[in-house]
Amino acid sequence: MKPYTAHARAAALSALAYRGNFLLSLGGAAVQLIALLAVWKVLLADGQVGGFDWPHMRAYLVVAFASATLVGTFVDFRMSHRIRSGLVALDLVKPVDYQRARFAETAGGVWIEAVAVIVVVAITVAIGGALDTPPGPMLGLFAASIVLIVPLKFAVSYLSTLACFWTENFVGVLWARQALTGLLSGALVPLAFFPGWLATTAQWSPFAGLTSTPALIFIGQASGTHAVLLVATQLGWVLVMWYGARLLFRRGLRRLTVNGG
Amino acid sequence: MALVEARQLTKVFRRPDKDPGMRGAVKHLFVRRFVDKTAVDHVDLSIDAGEAVAYVGPNGAGKSTTVKLLSGILQPTSGEVRIDGLSPQKDRIAVSHRIGVLFGQRTQLWWDLPVSESLAVLRDVYGIDHGTYRRRMARFEEVLELGEVLPVLGRKLSLGQRMRADLAAALLHAPPVVYLDEPTIGLDLAVKDRVRQFFRTVRDEGTTVMLTSHDLGDIEGFCRRLVIIDEGRIIFDGDLEAVKDAFARERILNVQTETVVPLEAARAALPGAAIEAGETPLHLGVRFDRFTMTAGHVVSALAPLANLVDFNVDEPSIEDVIRRVYSGELVLQP
Predict the structure, then answer these.
(1) ipTM of the prediction
(2) From which residue to which does the signal peptide run (chain B) (predicted)?
(3) 8 Å CB contact between A33 and A69
(4) B249-315 maps to which CATH number?
(5) Contacts of residue A6 in chain B, CB cutoff 8 Å?
(6) Which terminus, N or C, of chain B has the lesser number of Cβ atoms within 10 Å?
(7) pLDDT tens digits for A81-139?
(8) What's the fold here for domain B4-244?
(9) Do residue B124 and residue A5 have CB atoms under 8 angstroms apart?
(10) Are A93 and B99 within 8 A, CB to CB?
């Protein structure tokens, strides 16, 4: 375990080195949150859309902001850089598991994002009033699903960075993935607004766990067995992608060419 | 059994074969053609514990690829590698404790953390206890003057500082086998000297070292064994001093004369030697075999043709020998 806590600690320390970048991108995300809040407040001024009234939508957007901020794009760039630059070569001569080490780094860097989320949520509450929280057991389930965002998002990012073994280019892969996750996770609009077939597909895809699941549990639209099932789906996808990534990594290594030096 | 063993080691890379320009690039999207390039071609190599081996060859000869195969970074197309009886590809974790790798062109230090933090991560990665860690750090301080580098952030290191820190990082776990791939590239003379001094202490402690370098100064006085690779094949594997003795037979006497000596006249006076024009018409180079001719002989043969103003003798270094091997002028028999 010690090799991995060491990676997590180093990543936690180096997160501070990027605070400037981080604060700027956080500012961008906060502006987006304010804009969405303003738009939906007007749209929901008198009544409901797709089963959401204003207090629900406000809570949904706040949770969506939190889940978008945790495990940011920086993780993608850091991991893809390792492969494209050939640094992965040096990781392979160390007594550590490559995937676990990358996960430890990701988890280590989360604290700064968590702090930022807490600050932004506190400001939102201070301005717009308290958010309704779900009853005790559902709050626990909500917390579990927020925590699961970290390994889930890591797995999605890690898998897409492995594409670098084949494409030797990452930005295109990242854009495609962001478009897909933005839509299917419910970060753009709640999945309930989609046509039935798309909503169902999205709900059971690995992406729903990134935004929709914690948000729906928080606002009480998913509760009881349904909520447990959604969280179990998150966990299931984490496991499937974790082990799938191992297979893919092994295949990728066969493609590895490290030129020069 | 040898500590490092490669049998029939082969690595073939597949590269896209594109016609030049936009047309070629577009065509490649539809008709994919690839060419195979054999970077390492049936290499047999066996290194005993405590040996210091120089692994040299021209650019693109397959040196770095061999090192990456021997350390388990690349998967061989065919053939196999054994380090202490283990396969670096299959027993990756076990082998990683036994090898240290330095790639001069890459760094394993954390970009935005002080060097001391990068080394602390490695301490935990290799499970080195604090007492041993302190002892090794003290030694690095002694030979590499690492202390001044420790508080510096990875991205702010000068090349010399970076290389010293990376050396410490590669050797922190005291591996019995060390691969040094271009370890002095881009360093100034003072740092180079210090780094070479450090290599000698590492070797004297019994570490097996395989050193890849274009700078043959890294090799002389350090490696006893010389392996030359060209186009993926080992073309020489033998004793470095023996090569020097065999091919350092040749001497060049550079002469400056008071009046111009025509090349033909000099050639007629010295039938056993090769005469070359020097930098000015007043300079001559006489290339001769020291076993059939002496410098005194050359001087006395030239003296009747003109007054000699100055002369000096060039001894070929191992560098010249290897340069001639690369160019195909010289074929070494192991």
Answers:
(1) 0.85
(2) none
(3) no
(4) 3.30.70.260
(5) 120-121, 123-125
(6) N
(7) 888 888 888 899 999 999 999 999 999 989 888 998 999 999 989 988 888 888 888 99
(8) Rossmann fold (3.40.50)
(9) yes
(10) yes
